[in-house]
Amino acid sequence: MAVILISSMVSNGSRSPGSRRLGFAVAALLAAAVAGCAPPSGSSVFKEAVTDEIPRSVAILNYYVPRDLSLFQPPIYWVQFTVSQDDLKNIISTGGFVKGPGYALEFDHLNPPQWWSPGDLGEDLLVYERKEHPLDPENSNWSKVMFINSDMTEVYCNKLVYW
Known about the structure:
Layout (H helix, E strand, L loop, with lengths): L1 H11 L4 H19 L6 H8 L9 E6 L11 E7 L2 H10 L3 E2 L26 E7 L9 E7 L5 E8 L2
Antiparallel strand pairs: 1-2, 2-6, 3-4, 4-5, 5-6
Helix pairs in contact: 1-2
């Protein structure tokens, strides 16, 4: 609606064709800004939290990114998915994940979504993580942690960005 309104405002006057192009450019930028306000898709959250390539066997069960980010709350990405063992092994190896330490499965301080429950994966769950800082590998500015069931077919993953 906004695109049509802005374009018609420019084209109804006695302006040159160049003005119409400018009006269209403004309308396109406005449409892009409005589209950027849409909630993220499951695939975009997966790509941010896990890896850029989504294997064919991946079925995204749940995902969440808080919409009310504030100065005091860093962005956190949450995703739960199923995957084939081979695809998960590939994600781990190509994504730079390493076997992580055992984590306490307490996330209340991060305000996880209601479905977030990696403890449901069983007592033998596996933990893999990746931490990175683009300029200083000793001081990470984000971490990705995957909690994986023992048969390596179901995963809870979160990405925490540090300020």
